[in-house]
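#onboarding

Welcome to the new folks! Below is a worked example of what a typical request in this channel looks like: someone posts a single protein sequence, and someone else replies with the predicted structure as tokens. Don't worry about understanding the tokens yet, we'll cover that in week two.

Example request:
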Amino acid sequence: MSPGGAGCSTGLLLTLGWLLLAGLQSTCGTNVTALQDPGLGHESESEGESEEEAEDDSEMAESEAPAEATEEDASNKTVVKEVEFGTCTVTCGVGIREVILTNGCPGGESKCIVRVEECRGPVDCGWGKPVSESLDTVRLACIHISPTNRFKYMWKVLRPDQQPIVLANDSAILEVRREIRPLAFECDTLDNNQLIATIKFTVYTTNELQMRRSSRPDTDAVLVFVLTTGVIICIFVIFVLIFIIINWAAVKAFWGAGASMTEIHSELSSIRYKDSTSLDQSPTEMPGREEDVLSEWNE
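Example response:
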């Protein structure tokens, strides 16, 4: 063989050897990866399952939280708030009353005041009494609640068989001077041009007022006397009881001595009664005894 052919054969042998080595390395790598793949697959599967379970748990928690919130909201909505209305402060006209909550009060209280609101009664309040009066002037007041400037007031002087005279005063208080004849006044309380209360007053003359005051029975003096006497008697009884409690031993001994004296007197009286009865019976018994003695002597 020529040197050129020998060089070619050696080159072919080298290439074939390199190819064989590369094939062996590739086969070994695939086997190693094939051996490692099952474990890695199980780990990846377990990790995937754990992630899926965590996601499911988080979803369940999220779903339960809104459910609990909705249940709490529903329970809060189911609490029925019962409301009561207090008694109106007036029997006619306009007044105020309390709005009381009987269920659902804060702090577990049985009742609580929610607010204060306006209440109304019959319009006609009849004849009223002055706020204050003297021998010269009288102060009259319309039916109103605070704030007083919320309402409109119309004062009128009433006349028999005639139209009333409307006064210029539009305030809630009217001060009137007494005249030589009695006068009748009327006040209308208006809210948005709606009549809500009316009241009348009679202003007497000075002489009529003095006569009315003198004709009244003098009940004040009698009432003061009765009250004073009752207070004095009560104080005396209290002092007596205190004295008895403090000196109970002496009081008991005194009562015991008094009881013994009464017993002695009763015994003496009974003895005297017995003696008197025995003396009364002795003359009747003597003839019988004499007969017995004579009969024995004869025998």
